[in-house]
From TrEMBL:
<dbReference type="InterPro" id="IPR006103">
    <property type="entry name" value="Glyco_hydro_2_cat"/>
</dbReference>
<dbReference type="InterPro" id="IPR017853">
    <property type="entry name" value="GH"/>
</dbReference>
<feature type="signal peptide">
    <location>
        <begin position="1"/>
        <end position="20"/>
    </location>
</feature>
<feature type="domain" description="Glycoside hydrolase family 2 catalytic">
    <location>
        <begin position="86"/>
        <end position="174"/>
    </location>
</feature>
<dbReference type="InterPro" id="IPR013783">
    <property type="entry name" value="Ig-like_fold"/>
</dbReference>
<keyword id="KW-0732">Signal</keyword>
<protein>
    <recommendedName>
        <fullName>Glycoside hydrolase family 2 catalytic domain-containing protein</fullName>
    </recommendedName>
</protein>
<dbReference type="Pfam" id="PF02836">
    <property type="entry name" value="Glyco_hydro_2_C"/>
</dbReference>
């Protein structure tokens, strides 16, 4: 019995993952450009932000890395994620949770700052030697709604500690936009950061100008980018943001990647698109490249194309802006309670797959969260809906006055889908 136990332990210790050494990750300058090297080979980040749940899909689509937002002390869970990444040929930018001032963390509290540093030291020690680790990401958007510059002293202290504990992996922090004042603070208070993470959405086209005006000449990764943000989008007359349809988002992702991210081969080391999954943030579809059902959208196809140069053999359906009562979102649609209205989704499938339509109406989100903080999905409204099976639908407007949003999903039966939505208002009688 003991011999079998010892043999099992020995086999586990001699497994490929147990024997694998940590990756040696460096940022060097070659011919005037910053280059990320992994075990001596150039590595341009083709990645996505996710929790680690869709790794196989990421690898199959041409991705080579993903980033997380927190690590934690659940060693079994984190090691399972890293082992899975190693099997899939993926590297992980390890997010480290750091207290945000907007959530109540006080950077004048020396005991709290020290306790945070020691907690992070333990986290780094647990995972630093895993071969799937690419780099450490210290906090997320710590500059969002903050006032105490001591946060950057804390970031600098964390970076110093990580370098001492783990000499094999670079350290960064991520910024929700940036300017010269912020960059000067980082240079003065956290000079040991190896690079920065830049997070821009609709305004990512201004990245070259922002780099120049801020004075940042070091390396960076675009650690979040994607569709036009809800805070950047046009609003209805009652201040509801208008979301692009799935096809418009895919086109913007391709354009933004090709014109901005891939174009910078001097300072840019690659990017992590947001989000390789699904998430409620103003709507259930705004930022996710997948639907809650798991269906992939045109945005996933677009990322495969920019990463590999080839479209998938079977693509998601395409869709045009949704229409309700013959109008589109920019018309600020107001309906009369209890009356019947027609809606239409103009969708196509380039592969000739038969498509099905799913329609829902939700109450408009009243969330005011920022920085990706948690939101609840608004309640669904039970309405009488009648479909014609060809993208047409009629509904009876809700009896209760207020703000609502109409959603449609178009599925091709192959695991792919397109979607669109629009806000509408039901007026008081």
């Amino acid at each position: 019995m003991l011999q079998r136990l010892f043999a099992s332990i020995l086999m586990l210790a001699l497994s490929p993952l147990a024997l694998a050494a940590p990756s040696q990750v460096r940022i060097v300058q070659q011919d005037g450009a910053h280059v990320l090297l992994v075990d001596g080979a150039p590595f341009r980040v083709k990645g996505a932000g996710m929790s680690g749940d869709r790794q196989e899909a990421l690898a199959a689509r041409g991705g080579n890395s993903f980033r997380t937002w927190s690590t934690g002390m659940d060693e079994a869970r984190v090691r399972a994620m890293l082992d899975r990444a190693q099997r899939n040929g993926l590297k992980v930018a390890m997010g480290i949770e750091v207290g945000n001032e907007r959530h109540g963390f006080d950077y004048d509290d020396r005991a709290a700052v020290k306790g945070q540093l020691e907690r992070i030291r333990r986290e780094v020690g647990l995972y630093k030697d895993h071969p799937a680790v690419l780099m450490w990401v210290v906090g997320n958007e710590l500059n969002l709604h903050y006032s105490n510059p001591k946060v950057w002293n804390a970031v600098g202290g964390i970076a110093d500690m990580i370098h001492a504990e783990d000499p094999n992996h670079p350290v960064m922090t991520t910024l929700a936009g940036f300017d010269r004042k912020l960059i000067d603070l980082l240079k003065a208070r956290a000079p040991s950061l190896d690079l920065i993470g830049i997070q821009l959405y609709g305004d990512i086209g201004a990245l070259p100008e922002k780099l120049e005006s801020s004075g940042w000449t070091g390396p960076y990764v675009v650690t979040e980018w994607g569709p036009t943000g809800h805070w950047e989008s046009p609003l209805t007359t009652w201040k509801a943001p208008m979301e692009d349809d799935a096809s418009r988002k895919a086109a913007l992702l391709q354009q933004r990647y090709e014109q901005v991210i891939a174009a910078d081969t001097k300072q840019g080391l690659g990017s992590y698109v947001f989000l390789w999954g699904d998430k409620q943030e103003r709507t259930p579809t705004w930022y996710g490249l997948f639907l809650p059902s798991g269906a992939s959208t045109p945005a996933v196809d677009a990322m495969q194309y920019v990463w590999t140069g080839a479209w998938p053999a079977n693509r998601a359906p395409s869709i045009r802006p949704l229409r309700l009562d013959g109008r589109v979102a920019t018309d600020s649609i107001v309906l009369a309670a209890g009356k019947s209205y027609a809606a239409h989704a103009d969708a196509q499938d380039a592969d000739g797959d038969a498509v099905t339509y799913t329609w829902t109406v939700l109450h408009e989100s009243t969330a005011t969260s920022i920085g990706g903080d948690r939101e609840d999905v608004p309640d669904e409204v039970e309405l009488v809906l009648q479909q014609d099976g060809k993208g047409g639908m009629t509904l009876i407007a809700p009896d209760a006055p207020g703000a609502y949003r109409l959603f449609v999903e178009v599925h091709d039966g192959q695991g792919h889908a397109a979607y669109a939505n629009l806000p509408f208002l039901v007026a008081r009688p």
